[in-house]
Write a structure and sequence with these properties.
- This protein is α+β, with helices and mostly antiparallel strands.
- It is 40% helix and 12% strand.
- It has helices spanning 7-17, 27-31, 38-48, 53-66, 70-74, 78-85, 92-107, 114-118, 125-136, 145-154, 165-175, 181-194, 213-217, 334-343, 351-357, and strands at 234-244, 249-253, 264-265, 286-295, 300-310, 320-322.
- The strands form two sheets. Strands 1-5-4 form a three-stranded mixed β-sheet. Strands 3-2-6 form a three-stranded antiparallel β-sheet, with no helix packed on it.
């Protein structure tokens, strides 16, 4: 008779091997009565969407230093938060982060139930389950990519993703315990991140090795199966990078909705099949030989770069000149930063000045 997977076996493993993460309350601390901070749980879960743990750690730490409570974040200026978010991508998350912080502050704190959490901006089914489970120990089913991989192997689910998502959710729900639900949710994610990895899973030291059907069948590395992805199209664009004689940079703030919404960037053409766009003003524009290349979720981008030196009295309707002392390379979204990095040598920026701009 085949062994049955038990949450208790995984929790025993987690008590010893839990990852140490800046937003996490350790199993020993929880056993001692320390409760997780829902603000830290929520902030980390929003940051971790479509992003790796390694990339998020520094951002999370810096956010907590700047805004240690949800009330502090709610009172922050939009542009300051967007600037600190730059580089994490998916900028709609940052806009919803502020909206959610302000809504939670008005409520007097984070709600505990999934339904109430999902009524807040930027919180969907996964995030609500994660917050409810991890912060409040509610027996909710958390299903991220790591959990999907573990469940697909544990039960040898051959149906490809995303078609198998509800089957995997049902398996995950059946295993979720009433007690220590928050630790269990993090344990499954840790198992997928450290042992049940996409390639070369460490089945020999897995706490669920005996009940794992994919391991028994010798197909663990082939799961989960996924439907073939469509090829990403390539879009073209132009970035016009201009610097005034006093060192101010000509920039535009993108519309709130859409890619890079609300972020500062370089004026230019809409991204599409061609590069038809007039410069933002008459100047001696120089086209660089190199292009800024960037990949978004659904397409690749090739950004042609034109630069110009502008006189002190230059003004452009609808655009802003960001003073030298206010400009920060780090505050730019990644694609705009790539364009700037290619253009900087053409502006004869010294190493000392570049350090100040960064």
């Amino acid at each position: 008779m085949r062994d049955t997977a038990k949450a208790s076996d995984l929790l025993d493993w987690y008590d010893v091997h839990a990852r140490s993460l800046p937003w996490r309350t350790s199993p020993s601390d929880r056993a001692a009565g320390v409760t997780p901070d829902p603000y830290a749980v929520w902030l980390s879960e929003i940051m971790l969407q479509q992003t790796t743990v390694a990339a998020v750690k520094a951002y999370f730490t810096r956010f907590l230093l700047l805004w240690p409570t949800v009330e502090a974040l709610a009172a922050a200026r939009d542009e300051d938060v967007m600037a600190e978010w730059a580089g994490l991508g998916y900028y709609a998350r940052a806009r919803n982060l502020l909206k959610c912080a302000r809504a939670v502050t008005e409520l007097g704190g984070f709600p505990k139930t999934r339904a109430a959490l999902e009524a807040l901006p930027g919180i969907g089914p996964y995030t609500s389950a994660a917050i409810s489970s991890i912060a409040y120990d509610q027996p909710e089913t958390v299903l991220d990519g790591n959990v999907e991989r573990v469940m697909s192997r544990l039960y040898a689910v051959l149906e490809p993703l995303p078609d198998s998502k509800e089957t995997l959710r049902a398996h995950a729900a059946a295993l979720t315990p009433e007690r220590r639900a928050g630790d269990y949710a993090q344990a499954v994610m840790d198992l997928g991140a450290t042992l049940c990895t996409p390639k070369s899973p460490a089945c020999g030291i897995c706490p669920w090795q005996k009940p794992c059907r994919a391991r028994a069948d010798g197909i663990a590395e082939t799961l989960p199966r996924k439907r073939p992805k469509a090829a990403k199209p390539t879009r073209l664009g132009i970035a016009y990078i201009a610097r005034r004689a006093d060192g101010a940079w000509l920039m535009e703030r993108r519309p709130d909705k859409g890619l890079l919404g609300g972020m500062l960037g370089w004026p230019g053409a809409a991204w599409g099949a061609d590069r038809i766009a007039a410069p933002p003003l008459d100047a001696r524009w120089q086209k660089l030989d190199a292009e800024a290349l960037h990949t978004f979720t659904h397409f690749h981008l090739r950004l042609e770069i034109h630069i110009a030196h502008l006189p002190q009295d230059a003004q452009v309707a609808g655009l802003d000149f960001i003073p030298k002392h206010s400009f920060s390379r780090r505050a730019l979204p990644t694609v705009m930063r790539k364009a700037f990095d290619l253009a900087q040598s053409a502006f004869d920026i010294t190493s000392k000045e570049l350090h100040q701009l960064s």
